[in-house]
Amino acid sequence: MSASKRATLIGKLNTALKKHYKPLPTQPARPLLEHVLYASLLEDAPAELADEGMAKCEQEFYDWNEVRVTTVTELAQVLSRLPEPLVAARRLKSNLQAIFEEFYTFDLDHLKKENLGKAVNKFEKMPGMTPFVLSYTVQHGLGGHSIPVDYSAMVIMLSTEIASQPEALSGKVPGLERAIPKSKGIEFSGLLHQAAVALNKNLKDKAARAFIDAVSKGSSKRLDEWLASRKAAKKRVLARKVEEQAAAKAEAEAAALAAIEAAKNPPKKKKTKEPARKELPAAEAAAKETAKAAAKKAAAEKAAKKSAPVKKAVPAKKSAAKSASAKKPEKKATKKAASAKKTAS
C-alpha cells in the first residue's frame, strides 16, 4: 500500500473514531514505573477495568516488590475482572521482574532526563515488554510520539486494510505516527482503544461494524473472512496436535511391546572366538623347543641330585685299619684250605 493511501485511511479512521466515541478522561500523573504497569493491565482491556486492577494491586499488596514476588495465580485472582487475568498477571509480573533485574530499583524517573532512544532500548530488551506497553510508556511516561496498538486495535487495522498481515504480526503500523500528529496522539490512542475493546468484546456489535465500514467499505466482510480463516487455522493446528499425540502414543506402545518381547526372549550369547595363534617361523620354533628341552633336562638333573643319598667321608686311618682287618681273614681261610687238602691226600 502506498503511503498516501495509508495516510488517507488513517485520516478516515480518526474522523470515524471522533464521530462514534468520546475522548477518555486525562490520565493522572504517575511515576514512570506505574505507566509501564498500567499499560500491562490496559492491553486488550477496557480502561475502567485497568484502573480497577491498578487500584486493587495497590490495596492488596504492600508495595510493587511484593507484587513482583507473588505468584501469577494469586495476582490473577486480584485481577480477575480483566478479560484475560492470567495473561495480564503474567505480563505485569514479568515487567516488574525485568525492571528490577535491569535497574535494581523501581524508581525509573531518571530515565525521563536521559536520551529517549537509550531508554527505549532498555525497555525493548525486557521479555515481557510488548509493543503496546512500550508505545504507551513512551507516549505517557517519556513524552515521546508513539501510538500504542494492541491486538484488538490491530484487528481494526487489518479489516480496514490500513495494515497488512505481516505488519500486524510485527505489532506496528507504518506511517501511523506521521498521519497523527503528536498533539493528537493521546486522544487518538484513547478513541482507538475504546473501539478496539468494544469490537473484541463483541465481534457482531453493530456500532463497531458500522464504524469500520465507515473507514473502508467492505471492512465487516473482510473481518468475517479473517475470523473464518483464523478459526480454520485453529482447527488445523488442533487436528495436527491430535495427530502428533496419537502418533507419539502409538510409538510409545510399540516400544513397550518390543521391550516386553525382548524380556521374554533374551538374545543368545554369541560364543567368542579364540584369537588365532600366530605361527612362528621354523627356526624360531626349533630354538624354542631346544630351549624347553634343555630346561627340562636341567630340572631333571637337579631333582636327581636332590634325591640321591650323600655318603659320609671316612678318615684315612680308619679306612686303612678296616682294609687290614679284611685281609687277615683271607689268610686264615687260605691256611684252612691248605690243611684240608693235606688230610685229603
Please characterize this protein's 3D structure.
With 345 residues, the chain is mainly α. The chain is elongated, with a radius of gyration of 54 Å. It starts with a helix and ends with a helix. The longest helix is centred in the C-terminal third of the chain and has 46 residues, at 219-264. Helix content is 70%, strand content 0%. The protein has a domain at 3-232: Orthogonal Bundle (Endonuclease III, domain 1). The chain is built from 16 helices and no strands. Mean pLDDT is 82; it is low at 316-322, 326-333 and 341-345.
CATH structural architecture of the domain at 3-232: Orthogonal Bundle
* Main pleated sheet: none
Give the rounded overall mean pLDDT: 82
> In sequence order, what are the helices and strands, one letter per element?
HHHHHHHHHHHHHHHH
Oligomeric nature of the chains: single chain
N-end to C-end Cα span: 174 Å
CATH class of the domain at 3-232: Mainly Alpha
Name of the CATH homologous superfamily of the domain at 3-232: Hypothetical protein, domain 2
Tell me the overall shape.
elongated
Count of runs of 4 or more consecutive helical residues: 16
Strand content: under 5%
The poorly predicted ranges are 316-322, 326-333, 341-345
Gyration radius (Cα, Å) is: 54 Å
Number of strands: 0
Secondary-structure class:
mainly alpha
Secondary structure blueprint with pairings:
Blueprint: H1 3-20, H2 32-42, H3 47-60, H4 64-69, H5 72-78, H6 85-103, H7 116-124, H8 131-141, H9 151-159, H10 165-170, H11 176-179, H12 185-201, H13 206-215, H14 219-264, H15 282-307, H16 316-344
Helix pairs in contact: 1-13, 2-3, 2-6, 2-8, 5-6, 9-12, 9-14
